[in-house]
Amino acid sequence: MADKSMDGLNTFTAEVEAKEVTGRKLRVAIIGTGWIAGSHIKSYLAQPDVEIVAGADLVPGKAKAFFEKYGVTDVKTDYANDEELLADKSLNLDAVSICTYNRQHAPVAIHALNAGINVLLEKPFTVTLDEAIEVMKAEKASGKILSIGFQPRLDANMKKIKEIVESGELGKIYYIQTGGGRRRGIPTPFGTTFIEDETAGIGALGDIGCYSLDMVLNAIGYPKPLTVSGYKSAFFGQDPNYIGYRADKRAEYASKFGVDDFGAAFIRLEGGIVLDFRIAWAMNMDTPGDTIILGTKGGLRIPSTECWNGTVGGPMKIYHEICGQQVETEIPIIKMKEGLFDLKIRSFLDAIKNGTSAPVPSSQIVINQAIIDGLNKSAELGHEIEINIPEI
Predict the structure, then answer these.
(1) pLDDT of res. 23
(2) Which residues contact 108 (CB under 8 A, 6 or more apart)?
(3) Which of the residues 198, 261, 277, 353 has the least number of beta carbons within 10 Å of its own beta carbon?
(4) What pLDDT digit, counting tens, does each position of 118-169 carry?
(5) Which of 301, 323, 327, 298 shows the shortest CA–CA distance to 312?
(6) Residue 89: predicted pLDDT
């Protein structure tokens, strides 16, 4: 059972600390200074109430070079690892962005939360469900904010999907098809950390699959998953003739490839909803299909994108009846002025300053993670399995 008294104490503590940061710059560190960290630092530099004070990376000298590249001076980077940085009380950190490779997400997030620091954790949440639960235990004990890096849900078109579902226009939702992918898109231009098991742990499922799951699960209120029958493969990633690899690296990349490049699953959710999911880094097809949400009163078609980019591939359509006539209602694309990454960073900072809840809470994304974890386990076992998410 949840400890309600502890929840109340954590809320009070957050409100007090929010008052303490009002009127001063928030002190932020970045842990992991690879490719995605570039988006974080650019967004932080655009915020007038942020001071970047530290950074760390496991590769000696990498953090220092990273900050110099972006013209950020007076940043402490002489740390061998995240634990050294987080133990440095002189930093007086308010928040940390965790931009490490997947298998380091859980330990670094736990270290930061145990140190009493608010955390913005890049996706995927973790590699396994067990890791996610351990992070959430640290989050609960700390009373700090843990927000997961799912910026696509901040897109106005994604919000419109949720608005349509919640309006009741579709009636009772009973079937969803979702996913996406790339014809040739294994992300080796950024090195091998995305494809090696010891660093990534999961491939397309964690890189872009978590986004497509969030698009529909967030729209329907994140019901709990009950069972999953999953499949995964790595036919393209382990092929030394894969044309998406650099010609001089094909044999090396193929031998190091230890994750999935394709995954699919049939998931039963609470409320009598079934979810048909598929995702690909590489496939002999332009798209595995549009996302569709079927309800008893109407159906919503969400056009796929050529490569997952955080929004929809074209105007959406609702298929329904009006006065006995079958009609289609087109939902125009909403053009965004703000960048999604800037919105992700800003919403995280505002939550710290205002003492409000995480913009993308772990209580939701743990369900996303449970599905990915269940898909992996089911694929390895070769049969459907039940999904059980422990109480925290």
Answers:
(1) 72
(2) 31, 32, 82, 98, 100
(3) 198
(4) 999 999 999 999 999 999 999 999 999 999 999 999 999 999 999 999 999 9
(5) 301
(6) 97
Domains and CATH numbers, the chain: 4-152+341-360 (3.40.50.720), 153-336+371-386 (3.30.360.10)
- Please state, in angstroms and rounded to a whole number, the distance separating the CA atoms of residues 64 and 54: 10
Per-residue pLDDT reduced to its tens digit, 231-270: 999 999 999 999 999 999 999 999 999 999 999 999 999 9
Residue ranges of the chain with pLDDT lower than 50? Answer: 1-2
With helix as H, strand as E and coil as C, how does the chain read? CCCHHHHHHHHHHHHHHHHHHCCCCEEEEEECCCHHHHHHHHHHHCCCCEEEEEEECCCCCHHHHHHHHCCCCCCECCCCCHHHHHCCHHHCCCEEEECCCHHHHHHHHHHHHHCCCEEEEECCCCCCHHHHHHHHHHHHHHCCCEEEECHHHHCHHHHHHHHHHHHCCCCCEEEEEEEEECCECCCHHHCCCCCCCCCCCCCHHHHHHHHHHHHHHHHCCCCCEEEEEEEEECCCCCCCCCCCCCHHHHHHHHHHCCCCCEEEEEEEECCCEEEEEEEECECCCCCCCCEEEEECCEEEEECCCCCCCCCCCCCEEEEEEECCEEEEEEECCCCCCCCHHHHHHHHHHHHHHHCCCCCCEHHHHHHHHHHHHHHHHHHHHCCCEECCCCCC
pTM of the prediction?
A: 0.93
Predicted confidence at residue 1, as pLDDT, reads: 40
Residue 389, C-beta contacts closer than 8 angstroms, at least 6 positions apart = 129, 133, 224, 366, 367, 370
